[in-house]
Write a structure and sequence with these properties.
The chain is an alpha/beta fold. The chain has a single domain, classed as 3-Layer(aba) Sandwich (Rossmann fold). It has helices at 3-19, 64-76, 105-113, 124-135, 163-172, 188-196, 213-224; strands at residues 47-54, 85-91, 95-102, 142-149, 176-182, 201-205. Strand 4 (142-149), helix 5 (163-172) and strand 5 form a beta-alpha-beta unit.
Length: 230
Amino acid sequence: MNRSAITYLVILAFTLTFFGCNPLDVETPRDVQIDPTDNGINPKRSISVAFAIDASSSMVPDNDLMRTKSGAYAMIDLFDGKKDEAAVVWFSQEIGVELELTTDIYQIQSAIDRIPGTGNANRIWDGAYEAIEQVRGGAGYVKAIVLVTDGEEGKPTWSTRSLDYLISFANLHRVYVYSIALGDYSDGEALERLSNQTDGAYYKVSDPAASDSLVYVFRDIMTDHLRIVQ
C-alpha cells in the first residue's frame, strides 16, 4: 500500500470517527454530477403564475396600484420568453379575469396595465381562488399565484370562499401562494397563514412608496423562489 492510500484511509477514519458518519451515508465523487454553469437556478423549470391584484379604490391615492403594476412588469421581465406563462386577475367587490394563461409577454403587460382600481370592497379570497383556478391547469413545472392587497376581508367576509377552503384548494392543486401585504391596514396575519400553509412566502411592505420596494419583492419571488423550487 503506497503512502497516498495510507493517508486517505487515515483521513477517512478520522472523519467517520469525529463526525459519527456511516460510510454508507458518505457521498462519493462518482455519485455527484456537477454542472459548471449551474447557479442554483434551473431555467428548464417553466412557470405558470397568476397575478391576483387588489383593484379597490384604496390602491389608487398613494399610487400603490401603479407600484404594484411596476413590480409585476419587473417579474415578467424575468420570463424566459418561451414556456413561462401568466394570467391576470383583479378583485374588489367584483372579480375580473383580465387575461387567461399565455406566454405572450405583450398581452400580459397590457392586461396588468388595464387593472382598474375603482372598486369599493375586497373579496380577497375569491380573487385568490380565481387565480388558482386559472393557473392549476397550466403547463408550467411550477404553479403559483402572487396575491397583492392593501386591505382585509370584511367581517362577515365578502368572499364566498373561506381562508381555510382556499388553503385546501391551493394544496390540492399544488399551487404556491405568494402574498404581498401593503401598508398598515392589510390583514397580514391571514395572508401570512395562507402563504405559509401553501409553501409560498409572505411579504410585508410597510411603505410601498419606498424606492423600488415592490420591484424588489416581485423579482425576489421569481429568482429566490419560483426558479429554484425542487
